[in-house]
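Worked example 2:
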Amino acid sequence: MKAYYSTRYGGPEYAFYGELPDIIAKPGEFLVEIKAASINPVDYKIMSGVVRFISGTKFPKIFGTDFAGIIKEIPDGVSGFKTGDRVYGSATIITGRPGALAELLSVKPERLRKIPLEMSFEEAASLPVAALTALNGLRRCGVKAGSRVLINGATGGVGHFAVQIAKAKGAHITATCSGSNEELAIKLGAYVVKGYGEDDLSGERNCFDAILDAYGKMGHTDICRLLRKRGVYASTLFFNPLSFIASGIIKVIYGKKLTSANMRAKPEDYEELEILFRDKKLTPLIENIIPLSKCGDAFYHAEYGKPRGKVIVTV
């Protein structure tokens, strides 16, 4: 099979497009023919080796979490699917298993979802990591109708989904993004758009019920100044021990909560996204579609190109 694989941890300079032995479905798993995948920050971070103590040192490795494709083989005893069904989901590459940047993938049944009829492979592949992270982050922030929400990094992979989901919930959204993306942020659903400069939010104080930091770079001083009492801040970055300590101090002193906007992938989460998509309240933004043979360009653009929305790889 054709695959984009790495020969060691690092960047695209250690990765190649070429032939590898066909993936064989593990017992109890589906074999999926991949049609599209997407690149997320978690992909290039795992590729760089930040969790090598979990993902192991056996190479070559195939990375790529989000996928969409067609079922080629079905495991015994599993109902509800048939060969040829269009499906999507997320692969568990953090444990060292082969990922989605190849023609074939072995997938556990609980990590598969049928693609709605109205949704393309590219749109389906854009959803799992980014949209589920946005959905859970807003949930953990308690966002509802009337909530005043700040979304930091509003036109990126997680952010552009978060703005649309928050709008669907009836929230009042302030977005931060680069000046060139202001019009896009408003189109997505933001009522107010601010830049990334230090002075852009300097006049704001105790004005937000929730902050979803899809950019992950907000400082504790700004968070405490911007949040109302009992407000919640959620970051897409993993919490380290210092973050937990800071969270505890801020909660005790200021009455404000810091948490993580981690991905949650329960069936009801996927269903909520699919309903929003069907009702045209959630539209994936895809400006970059790159073939698997040029996957190195996709990784580079995702990490350094400041993409609007999602970077998609077609297989």
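The chain has a mean pLDDT of 92. Residues 68 and 88 are 4 Å apart (CA to CA).
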